[in-house]
Amino acid sequence: MLEIKNISKTFNSGTINEKKVLSNVSLTLEDGDFVTVIGGNGAGKSTILNLVAGVYPVDEGKIIIDGNDVTKLPEHKRAAFIGRVFQDPRMGTASDMWVEENMSIADSRGHRRGVRWAITSKDRERFREQLKLLDLGLENRLTTKMGLLSGGQRQAITLLMATLKRPKLLLLDEHTAALDPKTAAKVLEITDRLVKENSLTALMVTHNMKDAIAYGNRLIMMNAGKVILDVRGEEKKNLTIEALLEMFTKASGAEFASDRALLS
Amino acid sequence: MQILLNWLDTLPGAVSQGLVWGIMAIGLYITYKVLDIADLTVDGSITTGAAVCTVMVTNGENIILAMLCAVIAGMLAGMLTGLLHTLLGIPAILAGILTQLMLWSVNLIVMDGRANIALSRLKYGDKVLISSGASDIYVTLGILAAIVIVIVLLLYWFFGTELGMSLRATGNNLDMSRAQGINTNFTKVFGLALSNGVVALAGSLLAQQQGSADINMGRGAIVIGLAAVIVGEALFQKKTTNFAIRLLFVVCGAIIYWLVFQTVIFLGLPSEYLKMLSASVVAIFLGLPYLKTRLGLKKKKTEGKTNA
To answer: Which residue range forms the structural domain that includes residue B67?
Structure first.
């Protein structure tokens, strides 16, 4: 479903701030893979997601989604294949627009936007049903401004928007990191359900080792711009935080340097 | 008593001016409020609208055709600003200034090198849509009100379509828009073209209302338009989130603006102070929210201190 072939990325190339974030990374996701990605700060986790989404171009390498080479496509064109949820709940939705307007924008993803009236009563009913499944009471707030909702509510709606038009690939960039633990758990549960129900292929970056183990069928660990661990199936199910930390130390030759990962 | 009657006499003229500038302000609303771009192209494109319309009518063309061409000319100007901004990466405000300066030459060329071309009702008879004369002011008011309503309805429809929705999303959240597959460069160019088309339409009406096209008529137009947008929003903001009604409030803002100005002039303020007054009004209204939050913050800080 997703093929990342030998990609590299260096920021601020040729300046004193030059930073090689990814070097020669390859990764293949099978159809239906739900991959969790962990790693310390600056390991290159978010960069991979942003390169796949087309936020900035790769220096070298290829990105292929479902057989389509998207390496040269701009961000908005790749969006036809990709659903995204960001870390900042404000980033995934338009604050000054209504809930139903936001959903309608997501509903047009991958289509040519013409002068058809955007929200018909049929659409509205469909949005209402989808929102009802979130079980957050949002089905009665179709004409509430997005900016008035809480971070958790906004992330849940962003998730819904990312999966409304079934994407070939779902990219989740620490999408629960800005939420309180209870809300984060709820949003993760919704994530898991949406991925399973739609049998989506997903890539989820997280700082939380427990979540990384609990969710998905495959786990990869990154360090200093390289994939240092790739575990799947039974082996992944039997992982413990202690075992992960040990593997990290062994593979990277350093202690895992993220308090956030340990404190959860 | 006589003074009061004289003052009342000036009001229909003020409302008529308010309606024309209200149309201009609706154009500005599209860039300033919907796309979140301060577009300085308008100072030039309002004159372009006036120039194109005036020259065509004086050459014997039909007024409707002339106004239509004015709109198209305005849209091209907006498109140029949009392309400078999106293709060349020039900051929007600077792109607008560049186009505005180019339009100065364009407008002079359109007007065949003349700084002023008369378009009086007397000379051109029924060839103009609205009148510069005081005698049929109420007909003018009716036509202008009808134009305002048609524009508001058209824009209300447009911003409810998928394309219109993508323009609003672009102004609201660029990251989200791109993630949802919106070509934000296209929507920006489109919005700027649409906006300047409406502004040029206002320009063509302004020429008819003043009875002439003048190379300097657009100077400070953005400030007057902003004043209308800000006054309209400030007075009626909390009342509704309905887009069509918000646009009507912007027109109300323009009318209030001109009523106040007419009154100030009537009370004896020399007209050379007008631009200073409009800029001051806009500065105050733009600055108020900032001052409020600053004062609010100070309050919180002292509260924190006393609590500690």
So the answer is: 15-219
